[in-house]
């Protein structure tokens, strides 16, 4: 950093607060290496920086590169990616404060529906998904002179696609420099992928961290109890400072919070206010609004009470793992678990799996504790389990995920998914399945070229191709407003699973209240209109200033409904930029109101249609396209087997531990409306495999077209006996 007392960007003296921050920054390990790193970046197309958590690489690298390489950049920006919005905002705010400039001037942040970039911007912090969107519209990325990919070890799909695109782009842009950074990056993987790249290591944490292991393994059922007991033990016995707890998911956060509150209540008789400091419990996960996430990070630590330290306890998913600093954390408690969706290309279903995290991720999490003082880490595994059972590095997302959206991204970047230079190649079968689905959606042609519909899908800000297809189709049915509302509710509620407050089995009155609320909103057609009803009722309550009473009466989670409202506004603002898309609203008193909404949903989800399987099991269905047997989730609003629920469409197929392949977010529709929503697809029913579904479809098509069923089969005439000569 410059030693001048005048800020070159504002021509004013640095503020007192900024001088303190700059002094702290100069004490970071990376500061000593800034000259060497700047020279290396200038002289090499690709530089790989390996720096442990606490080295200061995320906040300092863009600053010293701008200072040292300003002439080299020639007014181009430095762009740095982060895996999540919270990390992007936190890093951007920190850099702006250290440079003593207002956000939106020299430093800017850009992510979904948020952009503070101006003509003056020189450092831009973005999410990796945002940079991928920019690359799809401007493949040469001409506005950037240096692109920094931070947290590269996470191998998110956007990050890995960007690395491949940048590798190709470097052959066309000799003026571009790429920097790959992470605390735990497997440098050899990236060095092999970028031949000739330079690796630089930066020392990390400034303070010692002590690791503590369990004496005996703990089961998943007892994990919440073990974590809660550890929190209480640390609070009563250990050094002052905040506690950061990593668990695998939102449900697990709720379990730990419930057990912890129960333990604190139990100890009220034995631990008075004079014997224990205040404990403020926060939750941190991706479903929270950004403002709520920032409050968790920025709220002050409780003051000491009667000589006992006050603490913040942050119960978090891996959203807190990277590039954010929660001040005052000295203790990390790690469940050593994480959840991921594993895609099965054969059945087109996913399985939400909880699995051990890697050693690299544990080191990254542990680094949260050693930033400002000595720290301690409590791992919910034995030392033997840590050494023998945990992988060294995390599995790349491309090896676990559905690749349909990724294939579209690759084609939009001007390349082919088949010959793409993946840093971690996915299975060939996954790519073939993805291209087959895109072909049936009329998004690509037989030669794997993007069609107009595929072009439009890539412009919609969602990784769910069925959501994008429904959004594109909705104006044709006059209900684009309603479809955006339903899809926003699906995203915010994680498919409806987080909509109602959880109720314990022993809370009988609350269970009756919950069942009554669910029945009140339930619609006969199924889950999509049910979600729509909840949102519209909440909006009505908000307009009448009785939101809190409405939420309490129906046991609904207000933060989830607010998240749906934010998502709806974001989607609306983005869809206005999609060529040919219009906002249309149906009249509520129309006789075809719900039918039109269902048709629009079916127009997007026509590959996910199932017919009820005859027999004694009313929840058993057959996928109309694949012939696979699937089970209707027990939580669906569709409760009875009737002629009106013989055909359904669904948003999600997943692996249930008890039922196997199961479908959720399900709505029923009459077959005539189903066919009318996507005539071109269903008219080829004769090409389907023989079976019950094909027979029923041919009967339906015959009735709609007045053609005989055998004509619909397009059979050749029956053979005749040869005439004798």
UniProtKB/TrEMBL annotation:
GO molecular function (one): hydrolase activity
This protein's UniProt keywords: ATP-binding, Helicase, Hydrolase, Nucleotide-binding
CDD domains, per database record: SF2_C_RHA
Signal peptide coordinates: none
Annotated ranges, domain Helicase C-terminal: 228-414
Domain Helicase ATP-binding: 38-203
InterPro entries, per database record: AAA+_ATPase (IPR003593), DEAD/DEAH_box_helicase_dom (IPR011545), Helicase-assoc_dom (IPR007502), Helicase_ATP-bd (IPR014001), Helicase_C-like (IPR001650), P-loop_NTPase (IPR027417)
Domain of life assignment: Eukaryota
Lineage, highest ranks first: Eukaryota, Fungi, Dikarya, Ascomycota, Pezizomycotina
Name listed for the protein in its UniProt record: Pre-mRNA-splicing factor ATP-dependent RNA helicase PRP43
